[in-house]
Amino acid sequence: MTSHDQRGPAEADELGIDVAVDPEVELAERPAPHPWLVLRQHAHLAPVVAVGGALGALGRWALAEAMPHDDGTFAWATFWTNASGAFLLGLLMTLLLTVWAHTRYVRPFLGVGVLGGYTTFSTYLLDSRTMLAAGHQLLALEYVAGTLALGFVAVLLGMGAGRVLLSGMLDGPATGEETTR
User: Fold this and answer.
1) What's the angle, vertex CA 70, arms to CA 67 and CA 71, rounded to 5?
2) Are 91 and 158 within 8 A, CB to CB?
3) How confident is the model at residue 28, as a pLDDT?
4) DSSP string computed for 7-23
5) Which of 30, 40, 51, 149 registers the highest number of CB atoms within 10 A of its CB?
6) DSSP 3-state percent helix, strand, coil across the chain (nearest 5)
7) What is the pTM of this model?
8) Of 122, 119, 121, which is closest to residue 82 (Cα–Cα)?
């Protein structure tokens, strides 16, 4: 008899997933919760994500309006949208794992909603395809590779900025005086 059999009824978390999982069972073999169950249990988050997504999409639209480009040329607005979104996601996740770990709506609102609506993989691919169709293969390659590279670096910079913010919050003022929080 394995340790899984000795446990008795499986303990389940809020999604119905067995939290006391037998380490010998491969992840692919573990049953996933039914999508409708997940949706029903988290339906209260849909308005939070929707409002955040609308705000993020407005931010992306505003940046695209401020930095228009012709078809087949380098899409600076999409490039900077995705880079800044990656930075903000790194910053947000660092803060969420520490400062806001206990919150219920910050991650769905900011991470999924605002930043999900703000960043755009579909426009990135459409811009790349348009550059290729216009005969700008090297420009399309630079755009694709540059976006991915800068996005990766931006996430790391965002995480670093989050750590700097956290260390400043934990250390208090440089004079060493106590502050009331």
Assistant:
1) 125
2) yes
3) 65
4) T-SPPB-TTS-BSS--T
5) 51
6) 65, 0, 35
7) 0.73
8) 119
Residue with tokens 């692919």: 28
Cα(128)–Cα(143) distance, rounded to whole angstroms? 7
Residues 6+ apart with CB under 8 A from 80: 63, 67
pLDDT of residue 75: 95
How far apart, in whole angstroms, are the C-alpha atoms of residue 15 and residue 129?
39
Exposed, middle or buried, 167 (CB in 10 Å: 0-12/13-18/19+)? exposed
Residue 24's pLDDT band, with cuts at 50, 70 and 90, is low
> In sequence order, which residues have a C-beta less than 8 Å from that of residue 95 and are 6 or more positions away?
162, 165, 166
pLDDT above 70 (res 140): yes
pLDDT band at 6 (very low <50, low <70, confident <90, very high): very low
Rounded-to-10 torsion of CA 8, 13, 17, 21? -50
